[in-house]
Write a structure and sequence with these properties.
Two copies of one chain form a homodimer. With about 475 residues, chain A is α+β, with helices and mostly antiparallel strands. The first copy, chain A, folds into three domains: about 20-280, BirA Bifunctional Protein, domain 2, CATH 3.30.930.10; about 295-400, Anticodon-binding domain (Rossmann fold); about 405-480, 2-Layer Sandwich (Translation Initiation Factor IF3), CATH 3.30.110.30. Helices cover about 35% and strands about 25% of the residues of chain A. Chain A is built from 14 helices and 23 strands. The first copy, chain A, has helices at about 20-30, 45-65, 80, 85-90, 120-130, 175-195, 240-245, 270-280, 305-320, 335-340, 355, 380-405, 410-420, 435-445; strands at about 35, 40-45, 70, 75-80, 95-100, 105-115, 135-145, 160-170, 200-205, 215-220, 230-240, 250, 255, 260-265, 295-300, 325, 345-350, 360-365, 370-375, 405-410, 425-430, 445-450, 475-480. In chain A, the strands form five sheets. Chain A has an eleven-stranded mixed sheet with strand order 3-7-8-14-11-10-9-22-23-21-20. A five-stranded mixed sheet of chain A has the order 16-15-17-18-19, with helices on both faces. In chain A, strands 4-6-5 form a three-stranded antiparallel sheet. In chain A, a hairpin with a 2-residue loop joins strand 5 and strand 6. In chain A, helix 2 crosses helix 6. The longest helix of chain A is centred in the C-terminal third of the chain and has 26 residues, at about 380-405. Chain A is globular, with a radius of gyration of 25 Å. Chain A starts with 18 loop residues before the first helix and ends with a strand. The model of chain A is unreliable at about 1-5 (pLDDT under 50). Chains A and B meet through strand 2, helix 2, strand 3, strand 4 and strand 5 of A and strand 2, helix 2, strand 3, strand 4 and strand 5 of B. Strand 5 (about 95-100) of chain A pairs antiparallel with strand 5 of chain B.
């Protein structure tokens, strides 16, 4: 007898009762992640890591298709190197973990565990680059980074996380800007098409940009609780680092020049977004493109003749095209339904004696609970189509939810009222003055998430700044954020 | 005019003049790797990293096919945790890099950057494991590790390297032993079939085994200079760690038990082996299964009408099945020949006006210099077959080289003479006494690389120990080693 026979899956705290507890329940009960012995660090368990592998595969293919190659740079950065770009060190130094002893000896110089790799990569680029003929440099690395954080939550903010960081060099400012936009576009494309998370994109304000960047661009997602999640950033670094690290090359006119520089990254944080955008009170809801298991087959009355064989046949038919599991454990069907539902598997297939008599099975959709009888004849085609339908539906649902949680405000009173009534994005005109940005943050808790690009700009009301009332050139998205 | 037009590729030091310099020349001129700012650390450049990605892909597929899943454990291990298994800490403590400051504060406890992850993984396993129903635990991680080394050489021994480490738990000692052997088998299979490196496998002596293991098994390769390279190890850890970390479960009889434990790893060191086994005085020689570029197309008299178009057509035909590059730079064909030869590309295809007239091209083999005219009609098939021929030939050549460098010795004089005349493996009977092992090492510089399994055991001479002359149960492989 199965040890879980008859047991119910332990309940998950409802989302709208306590969203933070819901999140913690989901990530632990689904065994995606666990807390490490060192505070603020996480262990990514197989179910979480398989999602990360899928995310990696999708992005890595697009990086390579756009001419980027992978490299690996060292984990440890000498302190003097981290200090070369003034804004950069100011931004990152407070979060650094320092190695001070190695091989039984105290080191002469502290070594930073990379919080990001601009400095060490630039030190190598300055050695490698000689001529314009070598440009562009289009490189990326997949790596772990450490940033000592005070308040942490698995995937969303941890002292160590996994990410990729692209680092490119270009002849002209225009090419660097194009690259910065290209990578933001790739980030958004995979996030929307595969993670089914609609993104708002735009430029970061001066106070929110990357330490050392000329400009930072971001994609921002809205979570179920109305808080925003910065989900990927692409930085135009101008010549800040190339000058600090004396990276020069001979240009087409045989003159020494500093190249233009970009960097861009997405991280395991995306997994947190995936959970908080799609999940519901029964647990995870995973988009088919990213789910480690797309189809779970559950035999009904498995002891009846032919059922288990038919379930195994079905698995064989499907597993060439899809990621399939057959749950032939001795737990009860009801327990299995809950279990695979909690794990967010897009389609559950139920197959029992009566189904077999009718040459059919039942497909249960995780995204909307619908149960669909389907002939076994073209089950591969039916499942394939349904997975795409679910993928699209999850995106549409998430977009609708975001739109419902997005409001506009013309003055501070409206701003506060909108956030109180309907937490989410507030679109408001902003004059660009950091004093207004600070005041908005102090009074509402919302930060400037991004200033949309011109093609997505709108004028709210009469075009005056939501805070100071002066003329505002731009509208921005504000929200409380993770 | 191309900046390299007319230039010759700078010469590589011949292997037999100075093997160490040859190695350094090859890895730097082919841009596989560079030296990092912190001594002993390396930067893996795209050409080196692409090989690592290929190695990862091959092993990862086999790990998954044998039921293993990937996870990710934290980089930092608290000092008290590293100390729980006595032999383990003794073995690794001298090589540890310690984090003592984080987030602007001195830490209460030093944190080790993982030199290997047995301890932190066991601390989590003890939390996760409850019942025999959960066993086996079959997990792996791909990660970076740090071991502070005094003498380093890129890929071969570096203070940081990339690897995978498998960590499994089992109900019985037999299952753990089977797993240990299964993974050694997988290591060997990929190494021999894909890296084309023949391996000697067997058990490590007590003094050479992993710190904390019950038994360590190894695959050992022989480099061109006659030195051995430990290329992958699989450890049966018994219950050493499961007891130290109090990992218990309820067995089939409802009794508390300690599970049996294995760990196994291969690393970026394999790239060093690949270079030193196959490379020659012209540079790298890469086995087709692992080469980032399998075919380099060089147009001859590229300015003549039709040549460049035909080269591009050829590239299009081949690139669906193979990893192909077309070198249409304005360097001279001779320079290109040298360049791609140095990079170890298995097949160079030359295509000039006269070839086109005859509907043919010329295939130049990197492994033996042979030039083969081939019809363009079934060029895909011809190239595919030739790549497999080259793959096999590289293995055969390497095996022959190893056999020529393997000798036997019945006493210490013979041992020294063999090593002096023909550096390589010396097979000799060994009584198993560590004193003899030490003496052999002191007098010859050769260490015990492994004790072959019974099916590959031989008796040398009269079966007496090469050192003390007493009866020896086993024969072992000795060599100087990296």
């Amino acid at each position: 007898m199965g040890k879980n026979k008859g047991k119910k899956v332990e309940a998950i705290t409802p989302r709208d009762v306590d969203f933070a507890r819901w999140y913690t329940d989901v990530i632990s009960k689904t065994e995606m992640v666990d807390y490490a012995p060192v505070k603020g660090f996480m262990v990514i368990r197989p179910y979480g890591y398989a999602i990360w592998e899928n995310i990696q595969k999708l992005y890595d293919a697009k990086f390579k298709a756009t001419g980027h190659q992978n490299m690996y740079f060292p984990l440890l950065i000498p302190e003097n190197m981290l200090q070369k770009e003034a804004e950069h060190v100011e931004g990152f130094a407070p979060e650094v973990a320092w190695v001070t002893e190695g091989g039984g000896k105290k080191l002469n110089e502290r070594l930073a565990i990379r919080p990001t790799s601009e400095t060490i990569i630039c030190s190598m680029y300055s050695k490698w680059l000689n001529s314009y003929r070598q440009l562009p440099f289009l490189y990326n690395q997949w790596a772990n980074v450490v940033r000592w954080e005070k308040t942490t939550r698995p995937f969303l903010r941890t002292s160590e996380f996994l990410w990729q960081e692209g680092h490119t060099l270009h002849e002209t400012a225009e090419e660097a800007q194009e690259e910065t936009m290209r990578m933001l576009g790739i980030y958004r494309e995979v996030a929307e098409k595969d993670l089914a998370i609609p993104m708002v994109v735009g430029r970061k304000s001066e106070s929110e940009k990357f330490a050392g960047a000329a400009a930072t661009y971001t994609m921002e997602a809205l979570m179920h609780d109305g808080q925003a999640l910065q989900s990927g950033t692409s930085h135009n670094l101008g010549q800040h680092f190339t000058k600090a690290f004396d990276i020069t090359y001979l240009d087409r006119n045989n003159e020494q020049q500093y190249p233009y520089h970009t960097s861009w990254g997405v991280s395991t944080r995306l997994i947190g977004g995936l959970i908080m955008v799609h999940g519901d009170d029964n647990g995870l809801v995973l988009p088919p493109h990213i789910a480690p298991i797309q189809v779970a087959i559950i035999p009904i009355a498995a002891h009846k003749p032919g059922v288990l064989d038919a379930a195994q046949d079905l698995k064989k038919r499907l597993e060439g095209r899809f990621k399939v599991t057959l749950d032939d454990s001795d737990n009860s069907p009801g327990w299995k339904f809950n279990q695979w539902e909690m794990k967010g598997v897009p389609i559950r297939i139920e197959l029992g004696p009566r189904d077999l008599e009718n040459n059919q099975c039942v497909l249960a959709r995780r995204d909307n609970g619908e149960k669909i009888p389907a002939s076994l004849d073209d089950i591969e085609g039916t499942v394939g189509d349904l997975l795409e339908t679910i993928q699209q539906n999850l995106y549409d649902k998430a977009l609708k939810a975001r739109e419902e949680k997005t409001s506009t405000a013309e003055n501070m009173d409206e701003f506060k009222q909108r956030l109180a009534e309907n937490p989410g994005f507030v679109k408001a005109n902003w004059c660009g003055d950091p004093a207004c940005e600070d005041k908005i943050h102090e009074e509402t808790g919302a930060s400037c998430r991004c200033i949309p690009f011109d093609d997505e700009q709108e004028v709210i009301g009469d075009g005056s700044c939501v805070c100071c009332g002066k003329h505002a050139d731009k509208m921005a998205y504000f929200a409380r954020a993770y």
